[in-house]
Amino acid sequence: MADDRRRLDDLLLMRATEGLDRESAAELARLLAERPTGDARGYERAAAAVCLAVLGRGSSLPRGVRARIDANMSRLKRDLR
Fold first, then answer.
1. Which tens digits make up the pLDDT trace of 48-59?
2. Residues 42, 8 contacting (CB under 8 angstroms)
3. Sequence-ordered list of residues with C-beta below 8 angstroms from that of 61, at least 6 positions apart, any chain
4. 31 and 1 in one domain?
5. H or E stretch covering 36
6. In whole angstroms, what is the distance from residue 76 CA to residue 32 CA?
């Protein structure tokens, strides 16, 4: 069980920082179904916060990165309502 939790954390972190291949995404979905977590997107929000803190809001980001951050922030705002 502890190994599953550790693997779940590893996969959530990888999803937030580098993305997952199809096999890892399927494994993550299976683990989340078996062990629901209250905040499966927490690592993504933390990675975005660190990125913004390091780069600063005025820094130029690649268009795709900025679009993903904006989309994630929009979803987060909706979820928090």
1. 777 777 766 656
2. no
3. 55, 69
4. yes
5. none
6. 19
Domain extent for 29: 1-39
Q: Are residues 49 and 59 in the same domain?
A: yes
Task: Name the DSSP letter for residue 45.
Answer: H
Q: Same domain, yes or no, for 52 and 23?
A: no
Shared-domain flag, residues 65 and 78: yes
pLDDT at 21: 94
For the segment 18-45, the average pLDDT, to the nearest whole number, is: 87
CB 16 within 8 Å of CB 42: no
Write down the pLDDT at residue 80. Answer: 64
